[in-house]
Amino acid sequence: MKKSMNKFGNVKYNPYLSSMKETKYTGYFVDRDGNLFSNRRNGSLRKLNPKTDMHGYIKTTLQATPGGKKDKVAIHRLVAEAYIPNPLNKRTVNHKNGIKTDNRVENLEWMTDQEQIIHSYENGLRKKNQRSIKDVETMAYLKSIGWAFSKIGDEFGITGQSVYGILKKRK
Fold first, then answer.
1. CA end-to-end span of the chain, whole Å?
2. pLDDT digit string, tens, across residues 66-93
3. Nearest-CA neighbor of 124 among 98, 106, 102?
């Protein structure tokens, strides 16, 4: 099989390769369907089988450079970084259909934390009484600077007693 020198390095010729993009992790590639590949030493590509984490996201551990620090990375983030422009520098990647294992480019979009929360409520992915981690952290911060439970509750549309219960569970 012939070898080609291209933007992917010394990889054996593979017509499928032209539709892939290299990630920020040297020697690792993603395709538009959310599949992850590694460049083997012999120049062939190997499809990797990342695992689903306890929150339902497909993740794996990669090294940015050989012998470098290992990072636990979400496949949907690698796909978004490779294929979806992010001119507004939004921090999170959203699954449009709410299915955390559907990492196709068409199903991903960049969002802010607030947009993610709104999307999750509008699509029934989060119960109305379920608080985000950011909400709970904000409540804890407000309490730490001296706000009363009732005042914090007013900010979040709940009772002071509910705020107390949420923060008590947090400890």
1. 60
2. 788 899 999 999 999 999 999 999 999 9
3. 98
Q: Report d(CA 21, CA 24) in Å as an integer.
A: 10
Token pair of 106 as six digits: 């068409």
d(CA 63, CA 65): 5
pTM for the whole thing? Answer: 0.67
| Complete DSSP assignment for the chain | --EEEETTEEEE--GGGGG-EE-SSTTEEE-TTS-EEEE-TTS-EEE---EE-TTS-EEEEEESSTTS-EEEEEHHHHHHHHHS--TT---EEEETTS-TT---GGGEEEE-HHHHHHHHHHTTSS-TTPPPHHHHHHHHHHHHTT--HHHHHHHHTS-HHHHHHHHHHH-
